[in-house]
Amino acid sequence: MKLYRLPIVLHAPGEHEEDQFMAEVATLPGCRAWGDTAAEALENLQSVATAFLESYKERGDPLPSEVEAAGSDMGTQALSEVLVAL
Q1: How many domains does the chain fold into?
Q2: Could you report the per-residue pLDDT of 49-81, keeping only the tens digit for each?
Q3: CB 66: neighbour CB atoms within 10 A?
Q4: How far apart are alpha carbons 40 and 42 in whole angstroms?
Q5: 82 in a structural domain
Q6: Which range of residues forms the domain containing residue 56?
Q7: Residue at 85 is within a domain
């Protein structure tokens, strides 16, 4: 199993026309999730990011180089990352 440490960006409500928080993984284009709170957006992003990486693997597509470089053995978690284990 490999652990991917994906840097995230969290946007406050109103920054992108939505009335919710938006969290995204910039290294995975289109990997975004929304929530009524920052915590909810981050929790939703965890599921979305996992689905993104699983989709790449299932199709046999290579992960973006920035994502592959973020793969590592188990380590510590920073607040600006979402962790995905595949």
Answers
A1: 1
A2: 999 999 999 999 998 888 876 655 433 333 467
A3: 13
A4: 5
A5: no
A6: 3-71
A7: no
The verdict on residue 16 lying in a domain is yes
CATH number, residue 48: 3.30.160.250
Is residue 78 within 8 A of residue 8, CB to CB? The reply is: no
pLDDT tens figures, 3-24: 888 889 999 998 776 789 999 9
Spatial separation of the C-alpha atoms in residues 27 and 12, rounded to whole Å: 20
Rounded to two decimals, the pTM is 0.76
Q: Where are the alpha helices (DSSP H) in 2-86?
A: 38-59, 65-70
CA distance 25 to 10: 9
| Closest C-alpha among 13, 53, 54 to residue 37 | 13
